[in-house]
Amino acid sequence: MKTAVLLLLSLLGLVSATNPIPQYVIDLDVDPEHRYDTIFDVGPQFNDTVWSFYNQLAGDGPLLNVLYKISDKRGDYNEEQQGEINGLARLSKLPVEFVQSIQMLYELQTIMVPIVNFTGTAADHPAVSELLDLDQDYEHLLRIPWRGPGCTGIIALNSDDGSVSHARNLDFSPVDVMGNLVYEGIFTKGGQEVFRSQMIAGYTMVITAYKAGQDGYALERNTRYGDHTGSYKEMVQNLWAGRDLNGWSLRKILESTSTFDDALEQISTVPYTSTEYAILSGVKKGKILARNPDNVAHTQTLGENEDGDDYIIITNFDFFWKDVREWFDPTGGKGAFHPRRVYAQKVLDAADVLTTDVLWEAINNEGTFADTIFQAIINVEQGLWNISQPF
């Protein structure tokens, strides 16, 4: 009902169905500590929001102490990223430790209430949820306020024109915080665009990115929950060992590669800190990689999908191994026992041709739409990078 009212008001010109996203240039030729100066100078609302988030975390002393404990044990990041972190701390006047801690938000949100998968998945890939066996202190991490599970990614072939489109929902709560931190970063070098990415203010890494070119590509990151007991412990150990975070590794790949195949090879082999999905679309091709820290656990390839040749899809669960946790995901509009993926697929399966309009409908239907703070419709071949925030 709410969606219908908003649509009617939009048609009458009384409201906008989506909100514009502010755009800023991030010059990679500038010293890392000063790359974000302009963003915080002209976007003071970012500083107000990150301070409200800090105050919320500071009100939970044990949780903040655990985040700092992990950050202290990890130590400084690589020189370039640490320079950016120091600059963000200076601009916001937040503690450096706090800015370091929030860089780990994608990795740390892989925590999930343990639900054992009793559906009998393949012996080599048991989709068993994490059972925390670390120090009791880390149970505080279950109260992390940034969390999913969220996100939907679809790569689809338009059978009429042969092009490949990519649809993306980024679902991230708390919405009133994360939604106010979204911006588009245009990364440049030598005065030329290298790539562009949807960013979160205060966070130095890419989340959804676009690399233009005849063989360019678009990249989406989705949280993936561990597929074996002990995976969360492995993630924390990787944090402590100082591995580059997933988003930083992907950002460096975007800086250094120009083609889909080169990006795919590097994304397949670069060490990760935690489990994650990489959704990669290009000119007439697409892949979805289910990454473990040290290898690729599973690959979906557009045109080779057992459920049909015209699309591949992922949310946050290994549905291809019948991960029962998908059915306990409460985030979609229909609630638990109604997976977001299922409702997106209903829209896709009902369409004769998978146009960008169909993909837009798929990520906006009630069953799929969740705590969505960012949406994208992308077609690399057509130079389409259409990004927005829900009204």
From TrEMBL:
One of its GO terms (molecular function) is N-acylsphingosine amidohydrolase activity. It comes from the Eukaryota. Its EC number is 3.5.1.23. Keywords: Signal. It is an enzyme of class 3 (hydrolase). Residues 1-17 form the signal peptide. Coiled coil: none annotated. PANTHER family: ACID AMIDASE, ACID CERAMIDASE. This is ceramidase.
